Amino acid sequence: MVLTNHTKTNRQLKTPLDWGKAACDSLMAAYKPSELPPDGRWHYHQGVFLESMRQLKEAIGGQNYFAYIKVYVDHNIDENGNFLWNRKELDAIQAGLLLFELDQQTEDPRYRIAAAKLRNMFPTLNRTSDGGFWHKDRYPYQMWLDGLYMGGVFAMNYAKIYEEPELLDMVLEQERLMRRHTRDQQTGLYHHAWDESKIQPWADEKTGKSPEFWGRAIGWYGITFNEILSFLPDNHASKMEISSALKDLAASLISYQDPDTGLWYQVVDKPEADGNWIETSCSALFIYTIARAIRGGHLDESFKPYAIKGYRGLLERMKFDAQGHFIMPEICIGTGVGDFAHYINRPKTDNDLHGVGSFILASIEMQALLPEL
């Protein structure tokens, strides 16, 4: 039996942080750290969820969260700092965000050794002719929006903590290249990917851009805009440029927000197209993007109603099982690049880790805008 959001459980959740905690705790109850799906490996699915848990811990406390993250990391990293990850893709770097606090809070050298291994991937990555990282080696000459978040946020944290400022410059350059190659002038949205070789079936023969604006990829980009701005000093030459790009994206997003639900569609700019559907993880990421940008002073208060409407709409979608455990439905599983049919035919799932992680992040940010529901 699945309970609706009109249950006693739901009524006990009075703040966004309550909702974030409910989501986090439900997945902790369902999985041992070593068993987090898809298969317990070192991967961004686990990384997004556990990084959201780490940030929730900073907001509400909870040694159990720190311990859970540590068990996951220790399951993957041996006594010498060795671990298995895919050295040929940006996605594998994201879970490295979990290593910094462990390195700072313990005297165990393994965590910095592991972080250095991930940091040292960057010089080995294949690049386009103008210097953009390939998303994966099996996707040659392709830049995907997702990749800027997967590698960039780790790189900026590493730069700050271990004093390698050149990594911040690297991220700024990757962002400029990504924006140059994927931003759409007409909508202000970002195409999922760009193929420099223009040989992929989905690539425009003139521009190399993919044909559609896939929600979750744009959501990762919104996170990264906010992250970049948090690392830049106020007098940095790129501050105004990135802030302006974030505001431009937010303005585009609210123009495609569904007026009834406050949420967004799988293919963002085609809400009325047959087969398109409301997708919860991208909606959570867009809410996060807007809410954090307001907190950071990059968006004014006029954007606040859109974030609130979106978050309230997102809560209306959430469910609970008979045990009162949180369920986030209608999450698109991981996907490659393709045409409209490709995206709308992707399977939906419940409680996918990067979907729940996105919800928790949105809940953390919404606490400042909506202290009580």
TrEMBL record:
InterPro entries per the UniProt record, alphabetical: 6-hairpin_glycosidase_sf (IPR008928), 6hp_glycosidase-like_sf (IPR012341), Glyco_hydro_88 (IPR010905), PolySaccharide_Degr_Enz (IPR052043)
GO biological process, one term: carbohydrate metabolic process
MF term (GO), any: hydrolase activity
Superkingdom of this protein's organism: Bacteria
UniProt keywords, alphabetically: Hydrolase
Pfam families, sorted: Glyco_hydro_88
Gene3D superfamilies: 1.50.10.10
Keyword check for Transcription: no
Protein name: Unsaturated rhamnogalacturonyl hydrolase
Source organism (scientific name): Sediminibacillus albus
